[in-house]
Amino acid sequence: MYTYSFEKLEVWNEAKEFTKTVYLLTSKFPDNEKFGLTSQIRRASVSICSNIAEGSARKTDKDKAFFTTIAFSSAVEVLNQLIICKDLQFLNGEDYDKCRLQIESITNKLNALRNYQINK
Q: Can you state the percent helix, strand and coil of the chain, rounding each to 5?
C-alpha cells in the first residue's frame, strides 16, 4: 500500500494523535456543549492534521507553507478553546497541561516545517 508524504511527517502523526486525545476528552464534556465548544474544538483539531495533509499535495513551496500556516493557526485556536474549557472546568489541570504540551510540540514542528518550506 502506498504511503503518502504527509503520513511520513512526525508533525502530522503528532497532530493526528492529538486529535484523538481531543475527541476522548470532549466526549466527557456536558451534553449541552455538544454543538458549542465540543464541536468547535474537534473541528479545529482535525483542521491541524488535515491542513498538513492538504498542503503536502500542493506543488509549490509557497502553497505548502500557506497550508502549514493554516495548520499552525488551527493549533493556536485549539489552545484558546482549551483555555476556555479549563476556565469552565470542563478540563482538569492535568489534562489541560498534557494538551498544552502536545500543542507546543506541534506548533514548534509546524514552525520549523514552514521555515523549511519558505527557505527551500
A: 80, 0, 20
